[in-house]
Amino acid sequence: MKQIFEIKDKNIIDKMMLQSEYGTLALSDGEVPYSVPVNFVYDGKVIYFHGSQNGRKMKMLRAHPKVSFSIVESFSLIASYFSSTEELACPATQFFKSISIDGEVNIVEKKEEKVKALTLLMQKLQPEGGYKPFNDAVYEKMLKATAVLKIEIKELRAKFKFGQHLDETRFNMIISHLESRATNVDKETIEMMKLQRKII
After folding, report:
1. pTM
2. Residue 74 domain flag
3. How many domains are there within the chain?
4. Three-class SS string for the chain?
5. pLDDT in tens, 111-146
6. 110 part of a folded domain
7. 36 within some domain
């Protein structure tokens, strides 16, 4: 990873991890890789997600708990002519934020921690409430039938690509094209471009 794209500020990383709705879990049975998107919640230290007690994912995790986990937030597609007049395809790209994690999955066994994880997940995905708390007796069977898992983070890398590496001319060309196209995503991208430019 080019150092200019790397993000090390924990506050920025934590904000993205707290706000992202889902990530992609990558695992392996020792021979065949497998990846699956999962809703998750981050408590500041570990990543929680849930699923069925059975199935391919659980079988693989029990045998091989080391995983990779990625989170991506996409921004504007940048057409090749947004930053070049040479009529080449090469400059075409997309701006984005991404986090890649290497870790190890542990199955949560204690009821208290299951309740904590599922409560955090609901607070994130349904902040308006409208459901009984998980310590209610109505959830007893569900808690036993549901697998709650946590990823212990071993290594984390964050990359934000918003044209930080471009010279002033190309950088300003892209902003001009984004201002002309003016979608909501383009407006958000311009804000991120200017912010990242200030940081470096």
Report:
1. 0.90
2. yes
3. 1
4. CCHHHEECCHHHHHHHHHHCCEEEEEEECCCCEEEEEEECEECCCEEEEEEECCCHHHHHHHHCCEEEEEEEEEEEEECHHHCCCCCCCCCCEEEEEEEEEEEEEEECCCHHHHHHHHHHHHHHHCCCCCCCCCCCHHHHHHHHHEEEEEEEEEEEEEEEECCCCCCHHHHHHHHHHHHHHCCHHHHHHHHHHHHHHHHC
5. 999 999 999 999 999 999 999 999 889 999 999 999
6. yes
7. yes
